[in-house]
Design a protein that fits this description.
This protein has 180 residues and is of the alpha+beta class. It has two domains: 1-44; 49-179, Beta Barrel (Barwin-like endoglucanases), CATH 2.40.40.10. The chain has three helices and seven strands, in the order ααβββββαββ. It has helices at residues 2-44, 49-55, 146-152, and strands at 61-67, 94-98, 115-121, 124-134, 140-144, 160-169, 177-179. A hairpin with a 2-residue loop joins β3 (115-121) and β4 (124-134). The radius of gyration is 24 Å and the shape is elongated. It holds the Pfam family DPBB_1.
Length: 180
């Protein structure tokens, strides 16, 4: 008899373990879904194009855009530190504005709150955080980091994107990324 009771107890424990594992799997799936929704929102910017254009402050600036990445070999860049004090990160949606345009973007200086801009070219739009400035080549108004440049030029073969429109955005609660 004791064997029968022991077997039933073992079967109950096995059942409890299965319920626990199933519950853990469901919780894991819910967390994964929540994370993927958050990532998808940040990838798409979470805002409609018309609302963003309405939030633009100041005049639109038109010129060419190029890419900078101080970690690429052969680049003559200012190093991995940006004017805002952040380190350059090729995976974020950031850009450096031409030094002479610095004041249109709140000064872009060490420790200051970041400013954002809407960048448009070739039918695509993206919100970037302006975290750096630089003495760009003539005709260029903005240097995009690698991720942002890949949005406009996936192969990075163009080097320069002509006819880019940059609009400063008011406020500081923007989610950088593509706008659709």
């Amino acid at each position: 008899m004791s064997c029968g009771i022991r077997n039933r107890t073992i079967e109950k424990i096995k059942g409890d373990i299965m319920v626990f594992r199933s519950s853990a799997a469901i919780c894991g799936a819910v967390v994964a879904l929540a994370v993927s929704v958050t990532v998808a929102r940040s990838e798409t910017g979470g805002a409609h194009s018309s609302a963003i254009v309405n939030a633009a402050s100041g005049d639109a600036i038109v010129g060419a855009a190029s890419m900078y990445n101080p970690f690429k070999p052969g680049k003559e860049e200012g190093g991995p530190s940006t004017a805002s004090g952040e380190r350059y990160d090729p995976s974020l949606w950031t850009a450096a504005i031409k030094t002479s345009l610095r004041q249109k973007f709140g000064g872009v200086q060490f420790g200051a709150r970041p400013k954002y801009a809407l960048v448009e070219a070739a039918g695509k739009k993206v919100i970037v955080k302006i975290n750096d400035v630089g003495p760009l080549r003539p005709g260029r108004i903005i240097d995009l980091n690698e991720r942002t440049m890949r949005h406009f030029d996936p192969s990075l073969e163009l080097g320069v994107i002509p006819d880019v429109t940059v609009r400063p955005l008011s406020g500081d609660d923007w989610i950088p990324g593509p706008v659709g």
